[in-house]
Amino acid sequence: MPVIGKEWYTEMNKQPVLLYEDISHGCERFTVPVFSNPRFKLDTLVFDNFKYTSRIIDLSGNLASRSATPTFVCHCAGQCTEHCECSSGVYGASGTVEDMDQLMWDTVRECNENCECALWCGNRVAQKGAMYPVEIFARDPWCGWGVRASVDIPFGTFIGEYTGELIDDDEATERHDSTFLFETRVGSVTLTIDAKYSGNYTRFINHSCSPNVKVANVSWDYDEIQLIHMCFYTDKLIKKGEELTIDYGEAWWANKKFACMCGSPECRYQNGKVINE
């Protein structure tokens, strides 16, 4: 008599496989490994055609054409105070966000390269890049690849900037089928970051209707025409091995023809429509 479920049991107990030791190729302070899983037949070619970058790629010259007029330059000695004209007052002494609501109110302004304060100034956070290691893993057949913490990450911690190719509205319209478009601004001009073929690990962060990461507008350019960086901060203490998630928002779901699979009891999206509460 055959053993019922033997093949299923064997398949479910296959261990994750290290696909890449460091997909960032040294671009980050830490390695960014990629773990596949024999249970899920996910597309691994995405990594072969992916250019990792920790900064925005400006092939169209949107940033280079700015006026280069400095603004918000401080003359603080060492650590900036709460009265510094460059500071938005969002960061605490340890460089973490203490009030998440304040983070979401307006653009967070950090000191810039022309400021006289020290590099260890508490108002220089996102511009320094990610500090806490993460890994990319095969989440499941529905959500594909995901990102999880490799260590415990405290509440209010900057974990990464959404990077990719900076494109204008016309180009973004042509690439409307890309699911990796993130709107931003340079001064008053709306632009788009496309991370389909170039970007960093934030490109693989999944949606959740109960996210543990918030996205904020941050600037640290010396130019009067500021580039708005899309930066990610933890909205709770994230434990080692826990998946990082953000809320993609209603605009992203508006034309989707599939239901949200986040698994949250507060899930709001089904077949591209917002569920009335």
Automatic annotation (TrEMBL):
One of its GO terms (cellular component) is chromatin. Pfam families: Pre-SET, SET. Residues 256-272 form the Post-SET domain. Gene3D superfamilies: SET domain (2.170.270.10). Residues 72-129 form the Pre-SET domain. Residues 132-249 form the SET domain. It is found in: Chromosome. GO terms for biological process: methylation; negative regulation of transcription by RNA polymerase II. This is SET domain-containing protein.
